[in-house]
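Quick look at the format.
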Amino acid sequence: MSNDDDPLRAAEPSFAAVLRQSLFGKDELEALQAPPGKGLAPAPPRRVGRLCLESQGVNIHAATRVRECARDRLEHLVRYVCRPAIEAKRLEAVGPHHVRIWLKYMVLESLVAWPSLPQPHFWRDKEQREVDFVLPHRDGPADCIECKWSAASFSPKGLAAFRNLHPIGKNFVAAPDVSAGYTRTCGDLTVQFTSLVGLRDGLKIE
């Protein structure tokens, strides 16, 4: 993915830089603009084990030895060394030399990390109309979240089908190209368009 084709880079440059670094192994963090004189000096390495240091999100192991008869440990070491930085199922090919991270996984990880939220669910009916995430509250309402790389690509078909069955709750479209949140009426629906960061405020998370 080139920088020019990455809408996340403009909306959330720090998050985009970390993702690109994990994908391509490039030091994309150097491209971020920092206040004059402050820079982006990395934190010093932190010891996380007797022979292991953590530096900039990477574990560095020293003097790791596995005897030839310890097949289980050897297999574990090979799996650890060869595993990708990001699971293949989280990536999507969108053209020659271009890949894209599934936005749903990024949003899901945030929803799970916010403990005050109900467990997120996926919804789909027999006509294959779907909503990316539904957050059902104990008192009855259910908040809906649709994830789009571009807010312009949002279609209310899935939300409308869900709201015919469960009319009470907030509707969100989370898109990295939304710089300032806004509300739009789509048929009978009131939908809040927000950035990934603004979604936290919209859900009223403490």
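Next, a different chain entirely:
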Amino acid sequence: MGRFFGAKTIQVRNAITTRFFIEKQIEKRVSPETALQQLKEFYPHKRDAFTTTSYDSLINQVSLYFKKEFFENNIDSFVLIYLLNTESLSDSFAQFTPKDLRNLKEALIILMIQSYEEYVSRATGEAHGKYVPAKYHQTVDRFERFVNRSKVLIDSARTVSGVIISLAIAANFACLYPEITDFALSSLQALTTKLHTSLTLKSANYIPNSLGPAFKFEQMREFCIKKLGDYLKERAVYTEKERSGNYLCQTYLPINRGFFYNTRLQIARIELASHLLNKLQFMIDVGQDIDSPQQLLQILQNAQKENERLYRFYGRVVDKQGELAKILEDLCQNLNDAYDWKDSNQGVYNPV
């Protein structure tokens, strides 16, 4: 049967499993839009006087970094700033390099992890000698959910503005659970202190960088991920993934395109595209963080070379270069155009 309630039946071949090595215990970075969707709810319940004071104090500290025309004290404004493709801060902050942005995120996420450990320790101490397992587990689970959602918000931000405003969004999320709100807001206050130190130091030592603003790099990264993701969806059905130690294992079912189709070349290209997509989603390449446009270009160029090698090795006379070759060529060209690399040496990655 070709269709059932409008759904097209897809014939697939035997499953293939790809393995991606990750030296550090890092998580895949989702898009800002996906990070917001994971929260599901933003609007807080009624706050008591103490909570309102703590919340307002945090929002006031966050507001100091933004241009007045961008910032309004409401969740809709926070979400709008978070999703912007450009900075809504002063020019010095707009010139944060991709590496600066990554370092800022990592510093804040470390503080979030520490706040969770402190909360668990405190909750365990309060429960000691008492039979309150249900309440204990509920509050710990909710605080863990708050921490995890906050980490995703911070890590997924494409701008410095997004990182800062993620604290305001997280504060709204924290207020949904009165039993954890006070400690959660206190944890976010610690993050604003870290922000102030990092941003003030960066602003005082501001030097225009040759890498371009961090948000431009994030735009290119997201564009690459979208193109590769669309390519894989057209050629394979993604079934499952498993994180085991330092490996991410993913299973694909290649779409059956008929007896005469070059299945081995199809599988090889799926594996290559999947591996490249993982690099960009985890922002890591052979244990090294991807934090410069030159490095991103080199990774794409290496993928081009590997794709050409696969074509020479598995291709037949009737086969063509394929869609993946065109996608990689377009991505490299878009990156060159975005950074106006007229000199071939400008896009060369030179690791220090």
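The beta strands are 3-4, 7-8, 16-21, 236-244, 247-254, 284-285, 288-289.

See the schema section for token definitions.
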